[in-house]
Design goal:
Elements: E1 3-6, H1 16-31, E2 35-40, H2 52-62, E3 72-73, H3 78-91, E4 94-97, H4 101-107, E5 109-111, E6 114-116, H5 120-123, E7 133-136, E8 143-148, E9 152-157, H6 158-161, E10 166-168, H7 176-187, E11 191-195, H8 199-211, E12 218-222, H9 247-257, H10 271-280, E13 293-295
Parallel strand pairs: 1-2, 2-3, 9-13, 11-12
Antiparallel strand pairs: 4-7, 5-6, 7-10, 8-9
Helix pairs in contact: 1-9, 1-10, 7-8, 9-10
Length: about 300
């Protein structure tokens, strides 16, 4: 059975870009008679905004994006993560890193907006130093590939495009990549629909799953909504929140953005009827690019800063 999810960070209200992700993941799940789970990625307490979780859930409900079961909060999964952290340390090649952000910038390469860690702490002792994170020791080269329903075959060398990325903090808090793997595993998630800015995250997670002998989900990376300056819509770029009073017209715009070609008269219908049409007529083919093979470098490098 198809099990998909929408996993926003409660750092503010939903904007058009995150709504597009929600609509795409919902339609893909419901069109295949599947389940659609909502998870709040709230592990990073510094980014959380009080009340944003309720605002997000209320917005989804007002747009007729109704989820199955109770919403999952990552912050309530810490005991689960603690058990898995030992498994990760046992099965992955992990080493301590004492590098500050300043130190990383001194000896790492900047590609897009990602600092590609040089592996400094693999060749320099961390004895008597403050440990700031634990990183995965990637092989050289580190090939990985995923088959995306829209983009086709995506290949990359993680050692070059990512470097030894962080797995968890000294206090045991898992990175976004590991926490997502644990949550997806326990929820039975077998389809991941997200923005194409998260291609690198998908490849990192795929590589970890490969090392641990787990099956990867099926992926669908959606096109990114951008502002007039060409920047992706995000809370960091001051993207405006969607208005529940304009739900019908905004849903219509989201479906158009996803190349679903909704009939013009649909924009004045209620949200239930719009989403019923969207599910019945959902087409990945309409979104597909012409090229068959792309690399992760095609997508803009990005941290996890909008809905997944």
């Amino acid at each position: 059975m198809y099990v998909g999810r929408f996993a926003p960070t409660p750092s503010g209200p939903l904007h058009f870009g995150s709504l597009v992700t929600a609509v795409g993941s919902y339609c893909d799940a419901r069109s295949k008679k599947g389940k659609w789970v909502v998870r709040l990625d709230d592990l990073d307490q510094e980014r959380n905004v009080k009340g944003a979780d309720s605002l997000i859930l209320n917005t989804l409900d007002s747009y007729s994006l109704h989820w199955d079961g109770e919403p999952i909060y990552q912050s309530k999964q810490r005991s689960l993560y603690d058990g898995w952290r030992h498994k990760f340390v046992t099965e992955l090649d992990v080493y301590p890193c004492a590098c500050s952000r300043k130190k990383i910038r001194e000896h790492s390469a900047l590609i897009g907006d990602e600092w590609i860690y040089s592996g400094f702490c693999k060749t320099h002792t961390t004895k008597n130093k403050i440990i700031r994170s634990y990183r995965i020791n990637l092989p050289q080269p580190c090939p990985v590939s995923i088959d995306d329903a829209r983009l086709g075959l995506i290949t990359d060398d993680l050692y070059k495009s990512s470097g030894d990325f962080v797995l968890f903090r000294p206090d045991g808090t898992l990175s976004y990549h590991l926490a997502s793997i644990v949550d997806d595993y326990h929820c039975g998630i077998n389809h991941v629909v997200r923005g194409e800015d998260l291609l690198l995250s998908s490849l990192r997670q795929a590589k970890i799953k490969n090392i641990m002998g787990q099956c990867n989900p099926k992926f669908l990376h959606l096109p990114l909504a951008r502002n007039k300056e060409g920047q992706k819509l995000s809370k960091q770029n001051k993207a405006k929140s969607v208005d529940s009073n304009l739900a019908s017209s905004t849903l219509f715009d989201a479906l158009n953005f996803l190349s679903q070609e909704p009939p013009r008269e649909l924009q004045t219908e209620n949200t239930n009827d719009i989403m019923a049409w969207a599910v019945e007529n959902w087409s990945i083919r309409n979104m597909r690019r012409k090229e068959n093979n792309v690399t992760a470098g095609v997508a803009a490098r990005s941290t996890h800063n909008q809905a997944d």
